[in-house]
């Protein structure tokens, strides 16, 4: 008798793309007969990302099928437990509570926060701002202002060059400060579409690479020059590079004469940052500093400098980004009249791009100011570093309700105990979240969204030219179905449904939504792409996307009589430079008993706190170790896996130490996003530890202008701890 093999479950494959980071990698999704995600792989035929997909993207099926995934709306009951609730009942109750607060306290009592889950969901990314605008609340916050808002401060103080920098594809040099795009798949100006392959291709055509990073990162391993300063000394080192360039006369004289306001003032401002002085303070070889300056400014002529979280999360982050952009101005590393614009817009409307400086706009000095600290807005948002105080500080305008969309502010905002107190003080916390993040654990209501392969989408259109240097975009339908008996919705529905109950009109792209019939996801995406050079239906029908390079666009001439110039050394920048100048003569070897510096560290396996609980990721990175140079470990009498106590001026954590020979000495490097709520008192072995115990929201530990807390580059001490 013949034994039959058991029938294999039927599967099919569908093309889509990943939406977990800026890479937007093309994928092939394997689905079972119920259209549930079985597996994901990179699409080798994808014209943009060329088959690349990272570990976290390849394990998307775990998130879709996780037994811990939130599949029905949850409400916090009087006993403190979260229990399932019917969706429409939850929306009724949320709307009722918001209406009460609007009546009693006004619109400023209601705030919203957007995280990566919102920004990478094109159909919903503008719904929270639209909702807040409809109720009249200026209290919009996001992960952007707790990350790299220094970039907006820099162009706000320096001025704007509409054509942008010389693109990566035409660069003969690339200078990266505190950026590791081969691991993070994100960097300002770097080609993140299959980043390793793109970098190798650029190196083969002759592009030089300069990396400034305290660790010999995956990216730094490809560098022609690698400077490893102490974390927090980026401003010192960048001022030193400018000093060398200007002293040697390597600047672009014509560009500076036409577009820079006072090159002599900049030269005076950095005059004390000699290679020798910088070498002593930042602890780098003076000759290597000269080599980097020579390669960038003298031997090369078409590449630009860019920074990332390294400088932007450290003391002086705003100044560091300003000095980075000053390097680009001084060396003339911008597109000029007649140059081709590589990405003139696909989803964004195309418009003339003119070679002319827009004078420093200083947006934050105009319009609404925050109740706490008097901070201005950035792209319509207030600094997230002020949110806990906006909740805790009594008085008119106190935030009493918070809607968190696709983010985990409980994990992202420094001074974790204070953030916990603030969220406990809210009258209403609503989290649109698929998993039990720290923020979701504190929520009064959790509204579960569809996951990426269960919804139609476009790539991250807000920053489309950063996601792709070419005018490329694509559409994906919803290729998968949510689990049976679930009650999840595309994120935008929640905002529309609550707004309808409040009698509000939502407007997207200056047009009202129909408030009688909920819009479909495709209807919102079609409106998003209304200014595209081709009909939305054509974008939908292009299986692997469209490259709209038929109509070239070039930089148009500016007004030769324009008086506008880049503001190289405005008063506040000059003052910040003087503060770093005063530090040049001070030793960094032992700062009041703190002999080490903190360095932020991203990892390949997850995007911040997202996905850390998934089995494959938990197996690879169960905790976040404290990385140290092996020589420092030996000096401190530490062995691999020893328990250590790490102390800053604001707090302390315990972790286990591990050796990292790629890390320079006198640095402790720990990944953020780990840990649990303070009230849970979870052990390190269970969940790692939040680095936000080491940080502060105090005015002495954050930047001016954008209230960006210092999350890297600050002094630490480390000692052996017992295993308890």
Q: Which terms would index this structure?
A:
724 residues, Rossmann fold, Dimethylsulfoxide Reductase, domain 2, Barwin-like endoglucanases, 7-stranded mixed beta sheet, 27 helices, 26 strands, 30% helix, globular
Mean pLDDT metric: 94
Total strand count, please? 26
Q: Say what oligomer this is.
A: single chain
Sequence stretches where pLDDT stays below 50 over 5 or more residues: none
> Remind me, CATH topology of the largest domain?
Rossmann fold
What is the CATH level 1 assignment of the largest domain?
Alpha Beta
The CATH architecture name of the largest domain reads: 3-Layer(aba) Sandwich
Q: Major β-sheet, in short?
A: 7 strands, mixed
**What is the number of helical segments per DSSP (H or I, 4+ residues)?**
27
Q: How many structural domains can be distinguished in the coordinates?
A: 3
Q: Could you tell me the strand content as a percent range?
A: 5-15%
Computed Rg? 25 Å
The coarse silhouette is globular
Q: How would you sum up this structure, described in words?
A:
This protein is of the alpha/beta class and 724 residues long. The strands form 7 sheets. It has a 7-stranded mixed β-sheet with strand order 5-4-15-14-13-6-7. A 6-stranded mixed β-sheet has the order 22-24-23-26-21-25. A 4-stranded parallel β-sheet has the order 10-9-8-11. The protein starts with 10 loop residues before the first strand and ends with a strand. Helices cover 30% and strands 15% of the residues. The model has no long low-confidence stretch (mean pLDDT 94). Helix 9 (234-248) runs antiparallel to helix 12. The chain has 3 domains: 74-143 and 367-537, Rossmann fold, CATH 3.40.50.740; 171-339 and 566-571, 3-Layer(aba) Sandwich (Dimethylsulfoxide Reductase, domain 2); 589-720, Beta Barrel (Barwin-like endoglucanases). It is globular and about 70 Å long.
